[in-house]
Design goal:
Blueprint lengths: L8 H7 L15 E4 L7 E6 L6 H18 L3 E4 L15 H12 L5 E3 L16 H4 L7 E2 L3 E5 L2 E5 L2 H5 L6 H10 L3 E5 L29 H10 L6 E4 L5 E4 L7 E5 L14 E5 L3 E8 L2 E8 L4 E8 L6
Parallel strand pairs: 1-6, 2-3, 3-4, 4-5, 7-8, 8-9, 9-11
Antiparallel strand pairs: 2-13, 6-7, 10-11, 10-12, 13-14, 14-15
Helix pairs in contact: 2-3
């Protein structure tokens, strides 16, 4: 049986207050993808934590199909925790087909995704994520970190699970990809920077102080503050099973939680939010180079909250 992994040097450096971008551990590569938008504006859906309940997933997946049939989606993004509770146990684990491939096959668009903590056995078995990152052609393209060129929109996937458990992540490449992108810039990852749900804010997850660097999410906070906040126009995450648009500091980057892909849990925290709801659903983005409309949509199709977000025009 594989042994539990220890906290990496970058996470310890972050916990001690050192700048994460100064950590010299070798970074993994950033996967590169591209899609050709159907029109001048790019439309996509984003949903997280889809692997908890097949009943809940069937509701949100069906509504996403209906939305994309009407709106004309260019792609979809999965925000991690695709297989609960311990990730896939092999390349032939039936949960992969049941929870990751089949529910999104009828969207008819490319699907991209990032890794969540449950996808690697709560951080104890990171090798289990490889069962998702090497799916065959036509299945969702799940990676720890990636950059997706979609014309006037760039989407950059962030390995928050790796950062949480102290492993080297592509933080410099993520920062560079966001800095160099033109148009509307979106970062996506599993863990939120801020949340009104049960887990709360990075660096204080589940009410834990920062001297518990792994469980508190201090490494996540360090990664997002260094590589995402102030660089992306929008950061989409999951982890808490709710729909939220957060208020508060990320140097101008909008923070949206879309973790209600298969289960809805309470939103009762003290973190300030423009909107927060314990409802099954997903997020839809309609974006161009100058900005985007972001809709938080319940599983029955009702738009619970909508906002227009302008793009920030200059490199960060």
């Amino acid at each position: 049986m594989p042994r539990a992994r220890s906290v990496g040097t970058c996470a310890l450096a972050a916990a001690l207050g050192a700048g994460a971008l100064s950590c010299r551990a070798e970074e993994p590569p950033l996967a590169r993808f591209s899609v050709a938008p159907r029109a001048e504006r790019v439309r996509f859906v984003a949903i997280g934590d889809t692997g908890k309940s097949e009943v809940g997933l069937s509701k949100t997946a069906e509504r996403m199909r209906a939305h994309c049939a009407l709106a004309g989606c260019d792609f979809a993004v999965l925000l991690g925790d695709l297989i609960y509770p311990r990730g896939a146990l092999g390349d032939d684990d039936p949960a992969i087909e049941r929870l990751v491939v089949r529910p999104f096959a009828t969207l008819g668009v490319p699907v991209f995704g990032v890794i969540g903590n449950h996808d690697e056995g709560g951080g104890f078995y990171p090798e289990r994520a490889s069962h998702l990152t090497r799916l065959p052609e036509g299945a969702p393209r799940v990676r720890r970190s990636f950059s997706l060129d979609a014309g006037p929109v760039t989407v950059v996937g962030v390995d928050t699970a790796g950062a949480m458990f102290g492993r080297p992540v592509a933080r410099r490449a993520v920062a560079r990809a966001l800095d160099e992108a033109a148009g509307f810039r979106v970062a996506v990852g599993h863990h939120p920077r801020r949340s009104r749900g049960r887990h709360g804010d990075a660096g204080a997850y589940d009410g834990l102080p920062s001297f518990f660097p792994v469980a508190s999410g201090h490494g996540v906070r360090s990664l997002l503050d260094d590589a995402v906040c102030g660089r992306a126009d929008l950061y989409l995450s999951g982890h808490d099973h709710s729909l939220q648009w957060l208020a508060g500091p990320c140097r101008g980057t909008a923070l949206v939680v879309s973790g209600a892909g298969s289960e809805a849990t309470a939103v009762a925290g003290e973190t300030r939010a423009h909107f927060a709801a314990s409802e099954l659903g997903f997020v839809a983005v309609d974006a161009g180079a100058s900005g985007a409309r972001i809709d938080l949509i319940r599983h029955d199709g009702e738009i619970l909250y909508s906002r227009v977000l302008p793009a920030r025009s200059s490199p960060r």
